[in-house]
Amino acid sequence: MHQFDVIAALETHSAVAFLVILQHDSIDERGTAIVAPCIPFDMGPPNKRLTPAVEIGGARFVVLVAEMTAIERSTLRNRRAVANLALHRDAFIAAIDLLFTGV
What one-character DSSP code corresponds to residue 73? Predict the structure, then answer.
């Protein structure tokens, strides 16, 4: 898995449809990856800076950067990326900056 790859959610009973891998794939000291959940656009209109809007498979979603978490990389090994959101890199970095620095 690579940075900004999108995988299907690990659980199917929540509103979370996908996870976006935010952590760069060269950083693997703890065996975990930082991911952020994606929910359907109509369930959480974006705060333009904190919850970037993206398109995955022709549908609109928002990425809940403030809800990022670490998951074991081993859970990603048998999963296939359904998209890569590297084109939204600047929006993700801006959201992380806002979350941690308030700017």
Answer: G
CA dihedral for 87, 41, 3, 78, sign (positive or negative)? negative
Q: What is the CATH number of the domain that holds 35?
A: 2.30.30.110
Please enumerate in sequence order all residues whose Cβ is within 8 A of that of 1, keeping only pairs 6 or more positions apart, or say none. 7, 21, 25, 33, 73, 76, 79, 81
pLDDT at 87: 97
Domain count, the chain: 1
Q: Which amino acid does the sequence have at 100?
A: F
Where do the H-state alpha helices sit in 1-103? 89-101
Q: Which helix (H) or strand (E) holds 36?
A: strand 32-40
- Residue 54's pLDDT is 96
Instruction: Mark the ranges of the chain whose per-residue pLDDT is less than 70.
Output: 45-46
